[in-house]
Amino acid sequence: MKKLFAIVAVMGVLTFGSTQLAQAQDAPAAEQTEQAAPAAQAAPADEAAAPATIEEAEGGIHKELKTKFIEGSAFFMSFVAIALVIGLAFCIERIIYLSLAEINTKKFIAAVEAALEKGDVEAAKDIARNTRGPIASIYYQGLMRIDQGIDVVEKSVVSYGGVQAGYLEKGCSWITLFIAMAPSLGFLGTVIGMVQAFDKIQQVGDISPTVVAGGMKVALITTIFGLIVALILQVFYNYILSKIEALTSDMEDSSITLLDMVIKYDLKYKK
Which residues does UniProt assign to the signal peptide (predicted)? Predict the structure, then answer.
């Protein structure tokens, strides 16, 4: 987890730094555009249209996103970007953990059952100990208490199953936090953009599109990016929940199978 948070911190710093650099680069570009405006007006219309078309084609989606990102107030948009980065880091960590928790359950149960049919409890324990995942851990805890009776085994399986379910859901609360935080930051930018628009109206004393446009643009763009971030994280979160539900269902079925195997073992070797 320390490495994960270190990576997230570095990505957040790089995101914020790239935003500030892009903003700094766009400022001189804007000044050059204003200085070249009189010369551009004197040029023919055909010559001015061709370079503009080439620049639009070269810029593409990346340039458009960067422009909108800066227009939406880099301060608030940086927080939205950091929420996306950290939220995706938690999502990726959960997906990796849940993917590693999945095993070939049928093959594992067959191996444990074959060892118990031979009366070799230690071999069954070794199989469970050397297999990753929550199902193998539950089996190991149950097999550790196989000599204490079926009731003790059932209680240990139920108790440790709850522990493993908690491990599966670990970190999901942080994902839901960033899902809620991203649009909230967008709405905060919306409110501040509206306040800026009304401040300009108050200063100028006139309601005109040019006066209101700046604040309204900040208000709308921050909301759009916040909702996009929330949608992206929500898709990952639902995928994680589906994997958790599948693993939990597999754990319950496997636990019932373990109890059946313990009953057969008791009937065969504890007469």
Answer: 1-24
Task: Give me the residue spans of the domains in the chain.
Answer: 69-99+172-247, 104-169
CA distance 237 to 95: 10
Q: Residue 81 is inside which H or E element, if any?
A: helix 74-101
Residue 75, token pair as written in the block: 């301060």
| Residue 177: Cβ-neighbour burial (10 angstroms; 0-12, 13-18, 19+) | middle
pLDDT digits (tens, 9 = 90+) for 116-156: 888 888 999 999 999 999 999 999 999 998 888 888 989 99
Taking each helix axis from N to C end, the angle separating 121-129 and 134-144, rounded to the nearest 10 degrees, works out to 150
Looking at the predicted structure, is the pLDDT value of residue 38 above 60?
Answer: no
Cα–Cα distance, 238 to 109 (Å, whole number): 29
Q: What is the pTM of this model?
A: 0.70
Task: Locate the DSSP E strands across 154-268.
Answer: none
Nearest-angstrom CA–CA distance, 48 and 246? 60
